[in-house]
Amino acid sequence: MIRRRTASSLTVGASALATLLAGSAGAQDIDLGEIVVTPNRAPTALSGAGSTVEVIDEDSIEAQSRPLLTDYLNELPGLYVATQGGVGKETSLSIRGADKKYIKTLFNGIDISDPSATQVQPSFEHLLIGGVSHIEVLKGSQSTLYGADAVAGVIDISTLRNDPVGTTHRVLVEGGSNETGRASYGLSNVTETGRMSLDIAGLYTGGISAALVNGNPLIDPGQSSLEDDFYQNVTASFAGEQQMGDNVTIFGSGLLINSKGAFDDSGLPPTDNEMNEGHSRQMAGRAGISFDLMEGRFRNTVSGQLSEIDRDISSVSIFGPFEGEFNGRRGKLDYQGAFDVNDRLTLQFGADYERRQAHITNNYGTDTRDADWIAGIWGQVIAEPIENLTVTAGLRHDDHSRFGGYTTYRGAVAYLFPSTGTKLRSSIGTGFRAPSLYENNYVSYDPTVPLPDLEPEESFSWDVGMDQSFMGGRGTASLTYFQLDTDNLIDYDFIRDTYIQFEGTTRRRGVEMGLAYEVNDWLSLGGNYTYTTAVEADDERRPRIPRHMIGLLAEARPAEKWTVSASAKIALDTVDFISPSFGTYERVELDDYVLLNAKVAYKPTEDTELYLRVENLLDQDYQTVYGYGSPGISAFAGFKAKFGP
């Protein structure tokens, strides 16, 4: 089952992890000593957590055996995934009504967002689950530690595992509907002083037609049916850390994603096109060192990372052939430190510098090259003024090469009632998002429209909630109210074909509720509900944000070696927009849907598993983006095994 946790984001050296894990201790009904870790940020006990974080651990990933990272994220409260036509197609993701350009996404500590994209954001459609062992989703503004553009939260993905000492091998093969096949291999090596992981995963699917509405196909008007849009992906990753002495640890990670697929014309609604293809290649690496001074009271981490993304798009339309190339590059240096004044007070501080470049060309004469940089310094205080009360307060100042200086802040508080297993928590924060290189340089089809004249968006967010343990720790419940306001929203103007600044405040607010309960030793149940309202300054609703979302989970072990699990995602009251003609748009309502998935697994041995899983068990005809198809009922059979200590 996917577990729900709360955590505050602190910063210490990686070498502190083993000590904290060894020294953690539970308290009464709730495991307050449990540690939530973001790579090279602070291991944090739940008792001092002021922000909401969702944790998807290795057991949850193994239990469901889904192929994509977004398959798991979509089951979390407050998160919603919308896809333009199935596996590998353009995918949007939102947290509490704020889309992916407001979400900092890290893969083994590497920022995987694309500087050449429309907005600086990751391509979630290309993230396979193969090799991933741990996912954390921090909600709310995390500007102090992660940068001012972490407005809605942080998604952190890790492949390092806590396997027993020795070498462990993992394999998985699966095949099923829509000519789909995937395989993965992972190697994990753990010693007394270090650990590493090496993973490779591949997926191919014949796909479905992304164009649910055929309209007037631009290519081969005489065709009698829609053509399927294939997708293929090979992903390789590496991560490792090694102690070089009592107080020094070196670490590094690397990522390679190579994907290719067909897509249909994005006509709002789209039309079928068998000539369109896209190819994406992403390479990234990160390395650093952590060292402790003053008997571990003064912890330091220095790291650097480089990444490059190349995307090629080839298509044919009524305007003729289009060939576009997009190249995005990032380089980043980062220092973070922490000093324990005493047992109840820790000071944190750091600095970072990031440079982003984008180069965009096409056969219509576009040859745009641009770059910017941002440098930041920050400080944070974590204090426990009285027992069971933890207060966190941080301040950050960023200097942007184009837009000057901005100061943001974040605060969090958590208070625990140990006798009842109750925790009260709240957080508050600000942030800003500078216009992307693409937004700044967008050229309209109308020659009378000038280049965009944009300023950064500014945001303010806060939340308040509680977590409750009951039935001797077998059950947990949570309740959170959240609010996120954004001023000077940057968005695309369909009428003028350019990016503009919308005056006023875009408001997102709502409620999250979660419940998990271990009924007995063979049955576990879970559920969550999210109410979200997201409206622009003119009170028009933001697209692709369901007003009501319900998630349900169940796992049963009816007999030895057998496991049956099921999950459901229910989305109600969602709007999107269409463009009936060039330069116009209007909002439309999407149908409500219930997406039910199930899996039956049999374990011949402790380390092997045969399984059958079914997606969209109710064969729902649904859309998450207007006009784009989604797969019907689909079945997959697989085998996985682990070899090692």
Automatic annotation (TrEMBL):
A Gene Ontology molecular function term of the record: siderophore uptake transmembrane transporter activity
Compartments in which it is found: Cell outer membrane
Signal peptide positions on this chain: 1-27
Sequence ranges assigned to domain TonB-dependent receptor plug in this UniProt record: 49-154
UniProtKB keywords: Cell outer membrane, Membrane, Receptor, Signal, TonB box, Transmembrane, Transmembrane beta strand, Transport
GO biological process: siderophore transmembrane transport
Record domain TonB-dependent receptor-like beta-barrel: where: 241-617
One Pfam family recorded for the sequence: Plug
Entry's Gene Ontology cellular component terms: cell outer membrane
Gene3D superfamilies in the cross-refs: TonB-dependent receptor, beta-barrel domain, TonB-dependent receptor, plug domain
Entry membrane topology: Multi-pass membrane protein
InterPro entries: Beta-barrel_TonB, Beta-barrel_TonB_sf, Plug_dom, Plug_dom_sf, TonB-dep_rcpt-like
Family of this protein: Belongs to the TonB-dependent receptor family.
Protein's UniProt name: TonB-dependent receptor
Species: Chelativorans sp. (strain BNC1)
Organism placement in taxonomy: Bacteria, Pseudomonadati, Pseudomonadota, Alphaproteobacteria, Hyphomicrobiales
